Prior knowledge:
Distance between the termini: 23 Å
Bound molecules: flavin-adenine dinucleotide
Strand content: 25-35%
Helix content: 25-40%
CATH superfamily of the largest domain: FAD/NAD(P)-binding domain
Oligomer: single chain
Shape: elongated
Number of domains: 2
Largest sheet: 7 strands, mixed
Radius of gyration: 23 Å
Mean pLDDT: 96
Number of strands: 21
CATH class of the largest domain: Alpha Beta
Amino acid sequence: MQNNTVLIIGGGASGLAAAIVAAQGGQRVTVLERGDRVGKKLLATGNGRCNLANTGAPAYFGDAAFAAEVLRQMPVSQVLRFFHALGLPTREDPSARVYPGCNQAAAVLDLLRAQLEALGVRVITQAEVRALKRTEKVWRAETGQGSFTADRVLVCCGGLAAPKLGAANAYSLLTDLGCRLIPTSPALSPLETEKAPLKGLSGLRLPATVTLCDGKRPVDAAQGEILFADYGVSGVCAMQMARAAGELLRRRREPMLYIDFSPTLALEENRMRRIPARDPLYNRENVRQWLAGRPLGDPLLGALPRVLRERLRAAGGDMAELLCAYPLRVTGVKGYDQAQVTAGGIDCADFDPATLMHRRLPGLHACGEILNVDGDCGGFNLMFAFATGILAGRASV
Ligand SMILES: Cc1cc2nc3c(=O)[nH]c(=O)nc-3n(C[C@H](O)[C@H](O)[C@H](O)COP(=O)(O)OP(=O)(O)OC[C@H]3O[C@@H](n4cnc5c(N)ncnc54)[C@H](O)[C@@H]3O)c2cc1C
């Protein structure tokens, strides 16, 4: 039996940030990680570049008001200050996404690990916490490597997205203590669609705007890159539709995705962002005029890849409508194995957004994706994980 002041369950983004801040404040900190190393998911973020924050308007779902309050307490400038103080230069791209200066997720993890070591934080890997209890005024975490006790425990176990990168179902640690679990589903995940309209397009990557409709009613839209696959579509703008598409499918509605190729035709901006839901035919007149002004007999020549030209012609019908509202019936959302984040999770109502401490269970904190908060692509999820970890680590001091 060992005694620690602060016990951190989960060595991911939120857990590592919390461990550093608590240890900087002089606490004795132990991190219990079920995997064979900490920060495995962090290495895969941002395609290996780690999009660690976003300086734009917060874009959160689930307990969005809670997320906003967390970020009021710990704004992006302070999250970045945490990294700068550790020695990590960062840079912001034109769409407000923040990356490490060297564009390497591995550099972020190396720095966090070096800091843990310098501060004397004990990191115990292959130590999955199976139960968490409060006994005699201390918190006790049970693992295959024995019991660990502490005055304070931070549950930083993440959600269900990307099990290959270490995600595991740890909600019961908190639900067994009376916390409420809001039903979970994969978010930021590729969409499965009907197959015929995809024929020949697999592997094609283009800038586009997508609109998700519930029947004829537009419900969500985003700009960015779309990537065609044999099962459906991925790419940032399609993945941002997963949350709403999954919701429609669960309600047995018929979600339709309309692809507007105007950004490929340089008729609309090519930015990665969510936009207000709009009529899928929003750009029809622009596209019509553009088609009329094309110099050669084949108006699509030079503007679209050959496979897409052929597909649009094979589809038949009004070319302006096909170019601005190419329809795909959504049949499913890829599961947690391909999702980047989990929608749903532990209800934030019981937690104080300034400290991430449970309102009735002193010394119990929950941070990061295990909570019922999910963000858009663009650094919002890591920013929430780091911000909650820093706040909880600070509250431990
Ligand atoms: C491929 C991919 C790319 C992504 N890219 C970005 C990006 O660029 N920007 C962005 O903002 N977000 C990105 N995300 C999302 C982001 O990585 C997560 O939201 C974030 O890591 C959540 O941090 P966390 O600390 O809550 O959980 P995690 O980072 O998932 O860490 C949880 C840790 O807890 C451990 N654990 C779980 N259960 C137990 C247990 N019972 N006992 C002990 N340990 C346990 C896990 O092994 C894991 O190490 C990406 C996600 C994926 C899958």
